[in-house]
Amino acid sequence: MPTAPPQSLNKLVTIRNMSAPSNDDKHLPPASLRPHDAPLAGSESNAEENLSPDAPSASKLSRPTVGRLSLYYRELNRLHTSGKTHLNSTQLGSLVDVSPAVVRRDLSMLGTIGQRGIGYSITKVIEKIGLVMGSGVHWQVVLIGVGSLGNALLRYRGFEQLGFRLVAAFDQDPTKVGTAIGGVIVHDTELMAARLAELQPELAILAVPADQAATVAATLKSCGISGILNFAPTTLRLPGSCAVVNVDLASELQRLAFSVQHRS
Ligand SMILES: NC(=O)c1ccc[n+]([C@@H]2O[C@H](COP(=O)([O-])OP(=O)(O)OC[C@H]3O[C@@H](n4cnc5c(N)ncnc54)[C@H](O)[C@@H]3O)[C@@H](O)[C@H]2O)c1
């Protein structure tokens, strides 16, 4: 069963359980994290740090903003671990290569305003971003396809820190079934529906060959999975209640190569 979130996160859980995107939105993050650019002006004020008691309105966040929040979150956690308590928008901006004005605008959308001369409380901003990004919630994740990529993902310890717990893996290869990788047991894909009904995970990582991806994704959706992180180089069509985010490293490399070739 998914771990019950702390009381303060109930609102987020409500958002998370709301209907998933339509087919047209399948490459976007879940509905709770989707666009509608309506940035508010923000500034580091002289007033006490202003933290809204309400959960941030995730529906107001644009996709680029969500991407930047994720980067802020990573950098702030690193600084927190190193013992730093405050930083200002210029410092945070330089860490993720955006202007201080953009940082202030992004954080003001979470109801967080820095204090002049002191800046932002790192723990409070981490808490706010975690709340809106779902990182404060314990998401249960399964992985399908324990090949080269699946193996590496199962061994990666960084997911847990952000609240994503890999609870089971599945593969159709009998030589892999019953093994444990990174502490996660690999089950037979044949038993996937039964195991998913038991574990009730919300998210799935798909690391099967491209020609298998659609079938496996349809099974995941029929088993109640709300979101799929798809590594297979194919476009999944899942009308209805399952969000899909595609990760294509080859395309990213192409984009990088293009940038390198065309930089002035
Ligand atoms: N997006 C990326 O950046 C990226 C990078 C590397 C690989 N990939 C893609 O990720 C996928 C996995 O890559 P890989 O290198 O790990 O491949 P792989 O061949 O090493 O592993 C695939 C695994 O999936 C299992 N499998 C096949 N059909 C299955 C099914 N129906 N149900 C359950 N398991 C099944 C196989 O037994 C195997 O263990 C591929 O689609 C590949 O193109 C994506």
Plain-language structure description:
There is one protein chain. With 264 residues, the protein is an alpha/beta fold. The chain has two domains: 116 residues, Arc Repressor Mutant, subunit A (Orthogonal Bundle), CATH 1.10.10; 114 residues, 3-Layer(aba) Sandwich (Rossmann fold), CATH 3.40.50. Helix content is 39%, strand content 16%. It contains ten helices and eleven strands. Helix 2 packs across helix 5 and helix 3 packs across helix 4. The longest helix has 19 residues. It is globular. The N terminus is likely disordered. The site of nicotinamide-adenine-dinucleotide has 25 residues, from helix 6, strand 6 and helix 9.
Shape: globular
Strand content: 15-25%
Would you tell me the structural class of the helices and strands? Answer: alpha/beta
Give the CATH level 1 class of the largest domain: Mainly Alpha
Task: List the ions, cofactors and other small molecules found in this model.
Answer: nicotinamide-adenine-dinucleotide
CATH superfamily descriptor of the largest domain: Winged helix-like DNA-binding domain superfamily/Winged helix DNA-binding domain
Share of helix, binned: 25-40%
Query: Treating each run of at least 4 consecutive H or I residues as one helix, how many helices?
Result: 10
What's the β-strand tally? 11
Q: Main sheet: which strands, in order across? A: 7-8-6-5-9-10-11
Q: Architecture of the largest domain in CATH?
A: Orthogonal Bundle
Number of individual domains? 2
